Amino acid sequence: MSSLTLAIDAMGGDRGPAIVVAALSRALQSFPETNFIVFGDQAVLTPFFNAEKIQDHPRVTLEHTEEVIEMTDKPGQCLRSKLKASMRLAIEAVAEGRAQGCVSCGNTGALMAIAYLKLKTIPGVIRPALVAQIPTEHGRPGFLLDLGANPRCDADTLFQFGVMGSVLSKEVAGIAAPKVALLNIGEEDIKGPDAVRHAAQQLKDCADINYIGFIEGNDLFSGKADVVVCDGFTGNVALKSCEGMARLVYQNLHESMKGHWFSRLMALFLFKRFKKSWSWLNPDQYDGASLLGLRGVVMKSHGNASANAFYNAIKQAHAEASIHLPERIHDRVESALLNTQ
């Protein structure tokens, strides 16, 4: 495999640079052919580099930045100010061809706005989409898009999301003919907004897409579909609702195990017995939402990501950059548009 370079925004997120540098240290071992350009405050990052013993690593370049885009900054203001912020310079490294992808756990709105400005969309793509992996019952990853980049979408945009999601599932997850579905309020053809029903017809008419119809929210994790398409408002609410429910279940289970000694003993036994079976539900391994449809790879890690979660975001960015995903999306979008005309 030829070497590639990833740009890392080390200053974003809620937990600070410590988790980013720890994830970088692990990535250096996992991807021996990959170079990394790290953008951030040198004085802040140096102690963490020393702690991980990567201060003089030949495949790491540290580019000093004095500005940071905070989680509370407004995206519009970030476009006009903080021109030397770590996030912006990481994206510019991709735009300039010095890196093939970038990873950040910083301000989502700012990341999307700057990436859209600097990288532009692939020819033929109307809007980029924020897409993330989700767990499914059969164990292989599913993909949900859009997750908030486009609160409202017309039929053409939803159709393109289906095409891009299908490419991602095939090329990254290795699924030969990914099953694509539209998230709707029912499975019947007559249900849903006009945009969703018109997008459904476009997907049906496209020979390049394995479209299976509508699915409802209770089937998001069933594995019925490998790619689930919706507008950004719906996708964001659906994902956050599932995260909240998972947190509630975990907290209730944790509280119930604090009681009698027998309950604690049984909890310990069950944890050891089913640890491997439940590991696929760990949200850290699904961290990393890709901005699909841009001319470069941009990976958004969760603002509160752990080192393990940020490492998995790097891993996903590496996978997409290695196969030149933007070019493959361009070819499929072009083919799909021809097949629907």
Q: How would you describe this structure to a colleague?
A:
The protein is globular and about 60 Å long. With 341 residues, it is an alpha/beta fold. It folds into 2 domains: 1-125 and 293-324, Isopropylmalate Dehydrogenase (3-Layer(aba) Sandwich); 127-286, Isopropylmalate Dehydrogenase, CATH 3.40.718. The longest helix is centred in the C-terminal third of the chain and has 25 residues, at 232-256. The model has no long low-confidence stretch (mean pLDDT 87). It is built from 11 helices and 11 strands. The two termini are 38 Å apart. The chain has an 11-stranded mixed sheet with strand order 3-2-1-4-11-10-5-6-9-7-8, with helices on both faces. It has helices at residues 17-30, 42-52, 75-80, 86-95, 108-119, 155-173, 194-205, 232-256, 261-278, 307-322, 325-339; strands at 4-9, 34-40, 60-64, 101-104, 129-134, 142-145, 179-183, 210-215, 227-229, 289-292, 297-300. The chain is 46% helix and 16% strand.
